[in-house]
Amino acid sequence: MLDLPAPALFGQLLLGAINGAFYALLSLGLAVIFGLLHVVNFAHGAQYALGAFCAYLLLKFAGVPYWGALILSPLIVGLLGSAFERLFLRRLYDVDNIYQLLLTFSLALIIEGTLRALFGSSGFPYENPLPGGINLGFMFMPYYRAWVVAVSIVLCVATWLVIEKTKLGSYLRAATERPDLVRTFGINVPLMVTVTYGAGAALAAFAGVLAAPIYQVNPGMGANLLIIVFAVVVIGGMGSLMGSVVAGFGLGLLEGLTKLVYPTASSTVIFVVMALVLLLRPAGLAGREVH
């Protein structure tokens, strides 16, 4: 057994939990869009960065503090995502999925390129809304990092409950599988699809606002996470909401422990797990097998 000091061990577990919170929120948004709309949203990382930039711009030009931006930024990015779905993405539902992938990838490049042209690549700091922390004896717990983990868990569970356990969620699932049947109940299926894509984009933006005080707000912050998040979604199971959440937090903790035990492997451990899952269970840990 490795003799690891308690502060170092719990510090890395906290770091892993924070990374896992972002992995879980972003993979949840991807799973919502893929599971309900069957769209691989390559713009998800750019929408995450856009949420962080919205928070920064709201603070700088409108004086809106972090707590207001936590509501307004996801709302703004969600509305922009809904407009994108209605104007562009909707036209490609009846063609090969590769065209949807290319369109969302193009959107990601446009968003990132625009942010880079307007604000540069160096990034901007964002003030921590909850400075300080508490000494637990075995480790020091910063208040803001505890908030990030807690609110991420609450939001992930709430999203899962809405989609899996409510009438609205059942309508959403039915609208993607049998839209003709759902229309007979007088439900506006195209509007539900638009709202679903907007909600997935809003989840990414919410994660971006949470990340702003921890990491610098910069145009490439989403691109750096997107590949890892796709790996998390594959491991959890494409379209599985709870699988994505559990895989996100679990892989974040695994990555944190790997940094402590064998730092060289910390950047690849998630992809090693993904390769093993694809070999042993191609549908993912919580995905449905397709025959």
List keywords for this structure.
single chain, 291 residues, 2 strands, 71% helix, globular
Lay out the secondary structure.
Elements: H1 6-37, H2 44-62, H3 66-87, H4 97-119, E1 133-135, E2 140-142, H5 143-165, H6 167-177, H7 179-183, H8 189-211, H9 221-236, H10 241-261, H11 269-280
Antiparallel strand pairs: 1-2
Helix pairs in contact: 1-5, 1-8, 1-9, 1-10, 2-3, 2-4, 2-8, 2-9, 3-8, 5-6, 9-10, 9-11
What would you say this structure looks like, in words?
The chain is mostly helical and 291 residues long. It has a domain at 20-120 and 137-220. It contains eleven helices and two strands. It has a two-stranded antiparallel sheet.
- What is the topology, as strand order, of the major beta sheet? 1-2
**What's the overall geometry?**
globular
Radius of gyration: 19 Å
Structural class: mainly alpha
User: How would a crystallographer describe the biggest sheet?
Assistant: 2 strands, antiparallel
| Number of contiguous helices | 11
Beta-strand segment tally: 2
Helix fraction by DSSP (H/I, runs of at least 4): over 70%
| Terminus-to-terminus distance | 43 Å
Percent strand equals under 5%
Q: What low-confidence regions span 5 or more consecutive residues with pLDDT below 50?
A: none
Overall mean pLDDT stands at 89
**What's the helix-strand series?**
HHHHEEHHHHHHH
